[in-house]
Amino acid sequence: MKKVLALVFAFVFATSFAASNALATYDFGQLGSGDIYRVRNVSDNQTDFVKVADADLCETVQFKVRIHNGGPKTLTNVKVKASLSSGVKTSHSSTVTVTADNNREGAVATGTAGVNLSKAGSIAYVNGSTELLDANGSYVKNLDDAITGAGVNIGDVAVSLNNKRFVQFKAKISCPEVKYIQVCELASKKIVSIKETDFDSSKYSKDLKDCAEKPPVPGEIVVCEIATKKVITIKEDEFDSNVHSKVLTDCDKTPVTPAELPQTGSTGGVIAVIASLLVAAAAYAVNARRNVLS
Predict the structure, then answer these.
(1) What does each C-alpha distance from 40 to 45, 143, 227 come to in angstroms?
(2) Residues 81, 119, 93: CA angle, nearest 5 degrees
(3) How many CB atoms are located within 10 Å of the residue 13 CB?
(4) What's the CATH fold of domain 25-173?
(5) Alpha-carbon gap, residue 220 to 267, rounded angstroms
(6) Where in the chain are the domains?
(7) What is the C-alpha separation between 86 and 37, in angstroms, rounded?
(8) How far, in Å, CA of 173 to CA of 282, rounded?
(9) What is the pTM of this model?
(10) Under DSSP, is residue 162 helix (H, G, I), strand (E, B) or coil?
(11) Where are any strands of DSSP class E within 85-121?
(12) What is residue 294's DSSP assignment?
C-alpha cells in the first residue's frame, strides 16, 4: 500500500512540475504569417491591395502589412521594417519583416509584394506617409519615417483578430527625365531652349547656324523703297535715289497725307461768284464817281 501511495505521489508531483514548466514556456505571443503584405496603385485609384501592382512612371503606390497575434500572450514592442529595391528597372519588390520581443522562439513574420512598371524607373519612399491603422483599417496615428531604415515600433499587440493592426506607407515611382535642347526658331531666327519632346522640324532647326546673320550677296544692296516704305534687296546698279533710299530708317517714317481742302457744293460756288462780282462792281462805282468829281 505504501508503495502504491508513493507511486501516486510521484506521478502527481511530476505532472504538476511538467504542467508548471509548460505554462512557463507559453509566456509568448505568435505573429501571424502567410499573406500579410500587399500593395496597390494609388494614382490609378485602386482600392484593392494585391501581391503585384502595375504602375507607370511618376505614379505612387502604397504598401500595407497586417500584424496579427495568435496568442496566448500580448506581443510587446512589435517592430515593422520594410525594404525597397534600388536601381532603375521595370520590376521592383519590397520585403517586410515583423518582430516582437516575446514572439514565439524569437521567430519573425515576413512578406513580399511587388510593382511592375511600364518603363524602367526607380522607386523611393514618400516622407511622412507611414500610418498605423486599427483592426477595421481606420487611421490611428502617423509613424516616423524609419520604416525603410531601422524600422518603426508600433507598441504592443493584444491577442485575437479584433486587436490586429495594419501599417501602411507610400512609395513614388521616378518621373521621366526632361531633356532640354537648344534650337534655332525659324520664324524669329532666335536661338531658344525647348523640351526635346517638343521639337518640330517645321518650327525649329537643330543647326544653330540657321539663326546666324547671313552676309550680303555681292552686287546686291538693302534699301528703303520710298513709295512703299519697305526694306528690300536690289541689285546695286538698279539703285535710283528718286525711288530708293540707302537710309533704312526712312522706311520707319509714316508718310504724311496732305489735308483735304473743304468741299463745297454748287450753291456755295454760285454765292462766291456773286459776292466777287458785287465787290468788283462797288469798286468800279467808286472809281467812276471820283473821275466825275475830278
Answers:
(1) 9, 20, 74
(2) 20
(3) 10
(4) Immunoglobulin-like (2.60.40)
(5) 58
(6) 25-173, 178-214, 216-255
(7) 19
(8) 107
(9) 0.60
(10) helix
(11) 89-99, 109-121
(12) -
For 251, the 3-state DSSP assignment is helix
Strand order in the sheet with 190-195: 190-195, 180-185, 204-205
Closest CA to 96 of 65, 122, 75: 65
User: pLDDT tens digits, residue range 169-191?
Assistant: 999 999 988 889 999 998 887 88
Sign of CA dihedral 183, 189, 192, 198: negative
Q: Round to whole Å and give the CA distance between 41 and 19.
A: 51
What whole-number distance in Å separates Cα of residue 79 and Cα of residue 39? 19
In terms of DSSP H, where are the helices of the chain? 2-25, 266-293
What distances in angstroms separate CA 180 from CA 80, 185, 196, one per listed residue?
A: 43, 14, 5
Which of 18-22, 143-147, 176-180, 238-242 has the highest average model confidence (pLDDT)?
143-147
- The residue type at 79: K
In contact, 99 and 33? CB cutoff 8 Å: no
Categorize the per-residue pLDDT at 250 as very low, low, confident or very high, splitting at 50, 70 and 90: confident
